[in-house]
Amino acid sequence: MPEALLSVRNLQAWYDESQALFGVDLDVREGEVVTLVGRNGVGKTTTLKSIMGMIPSVKGSVTLHGSEILGMPSHKIARLGIGVVPEERGIFSGLTVRENLMLPPVIADGGWSTERIYKLFPILDERKNSIGTKLSGGEQQMLAVARILRSGARLVLMDEPTEGLAPVIVNAIRDLVLDMKRDGITVLLVEQNLRFATKVSDRHYLMVHGKIVETLSNEEVVHREGELLAHLGV
Amino acid sequence: MLESLGGQIFNGLVSGAFYAMLSLGLAIIFGLLRIVNFAHGTMYMLGAFVAYIGAQSLGLNFWVALVASPIVVAIVGIVLERTLLSRLYKLDVLYNLLLTFGITLFIEDAMRLKFGMQGSPYVIPNQLEGVLNLGFMIYPTYRVFVIVASLVVCIATWLLIEKTSLGATLRAATENPGLVRAFGINVPALITGVFGFGCALAAFAGVLAAPVNNVAPLMGDDIIIPTFAVVVIGGMGSILGSIVTGFLVGVVVALGAFFYPPISGTLIYILMAFVLLVKPTGLFGTLEGSR
Fold first, then answer.
1. Which end of chain B lies in a sparser environment, N or C, as judged by fewer CB atoms within 10 Å?
2. Domain span including residue A94
3. What are the pLDDT digits (tens) for A26-48?
4. B contact test, residue of A50, A54, A75, A143 with most B CBs within 10 A
5. Nearest CA of chain A to the CA of B288: how many Å?
6. Which residue in B has a C-alpha nearest to residue A91's C-alpha?
7. What CATH number is given to the structural domain containing A41?
8. How far, in Å, CA of B111 to CA of B120, rounded?
9. pLDDT tens digits, residue range B115-174?
10. Are B169 and A104 in contact (CB < 8 Å)?
11. Distance in angstroms (rounded) separating the CA atoms of residues A203 and A205
């Protein structure tokens, strides 16, 4: 088995006095798409934010290519080739579509060119001078992913990219994630939509109360969908 | 009558030029750091003093001071931000307000000890002496220069923030600094730079003010309170609001003084109260900007 690109060991995190993560362990290998599933409030977003250095009170270990990154400032972590597509898209209301797209600096070679992005999402070109938040939810999600692909990130942390989107847009996001996978981009995905997750992911981690309790294959998720949906409270 | 009214409007534009430059710096700092920088008037005073000391000790002329003084004061601001302000970012913003108030008292008293309360004159450069015939009235050349220089600096700053990628980064960091940092942008360095730039704007205004007023340790106190009122009227953190309101308030106050002199000192605060009642976020402000 190849060495993990991202390795998380005994990750614990706190918001003030309140502990949110109780020892998360997970591995993501190069080129994989791995999903974190679990009901709201179990610590999925906190796990992504902790990896990204966005939570000040953390303990444990997070390594990228074997080097420890826990405790590093988040801008330095990003420069190591990690991109983030945040919950609720994180489109800036004070910036145009083009400014939103060009905001993340290029952190590595091999990022998607604006031509490629505009070819795939012509709406981002057509509405490049509109305010970013004036786009529809689906278009904003495309923009949120596109700006990270432009930066050249090789590991992308995606937080609920299908949340609140129409099925046709969910399919477009699925195609986009599969495109990223073909490009060799590694993805750690937080997702509640199990059908979407099984179509794009290689493996799934089930999270309960701030810990990983089970690793599931696609077949296991499909086989146990009813049980898992009940578990997720969806 | 018409010529005196025109002269009064121009006097208002000169006051407005100082309000605009100072409130612009305050707005930029408030936008990114969420700090009401009480020491801004002190940076204005230091700007004037650097020009004055430079002229007295090194023979630096006005034009060199106009460039050198903002750089020196920006460095002072950067040192203050790195060594003091940055330590309080995790606490309530009121702590930084108190800190900047303390910095003001400390620097002002140090300057009073060294230079006394009496103001020192700073001469107008030769090229800007005399008067200019504007066609409809005669007005001192230096004061016309103050209006033009302020407009150029304000518009350049507005263009920098609204039309460049650096400005877009700044606006994004104002909205969600954590996410901007997660994109790989060094937001703490950006904050330091912005604080320094805001202080440089205040110092530039201070150098321009040096030939108009005497250079005195308390000169910042006289202007900072009306400038805070300008920021509130324009809308907390609004760049365009600061510029337009700065000039507007300068003219309104000057006209108030022309038609009914007893009201001139309080007009700006009456205006502020009125705007707060009608539009609490200020003329150009948004709810997000003032949160």
1. N
2. 4-232
3. 999 999 999 999 988 899 999 99
4. A75
5. 10
6. B172
7. 3.40.50.300
8. 12
9. 988 888 898 998 999 998 888 888 999 999 999 999 999 999 999 999 999 999 999 998
10. no
11. 7
CB contact under 8 A, B168 and A103: yes
Q: Give the separation between CA A85 and CA A113, rounded to whole angstroms.
A: 18
Residue B195 · residue B29 · CB < 8 Å: yes
Q: Considering its fold, how many domains does chain A have in total? A: 1
Shortest distance, CA B45 to any CA of chain A (angstroms): 33
Residues of A in contact with B288 (CB under 8 A): 93
| One-letter amino acid for residue B234 of the chain | G
CATH architecture observed for domain B2-290: Orthogonal Bundle (1.10)
Domain chopping of chain B, boundaries: 2-290
pLDDT by 10s per residue, chain B, length 291: 667 888 899 999 999 999 999 999 999 998 888 888 999 999 999 999 999 999 999 999 999 999 999 999 999 999 999 999 999 888 888 898 899 999 999 999 999 999 988 888 898 998 999 998 888 888 999 999 999 999 999 999 999 999 999 999 999 998 999 999 999 999 999 999 999 999 999 999 999 999 998 899 999 998 999 999 999 999 887 888 899 999 999 999 999 988 988 888 889 999 999 999 999 888 987 765 554
SS3 B238: coil
E runs forming strands in chain A = 4-15, 18-29, 33-37, 57-64, 67-68, 82-85, 155-159, 186-190, 203-208, 211-217
When CB atoms are compared, the residue of B168, B187, B188 closest to A99 is B168
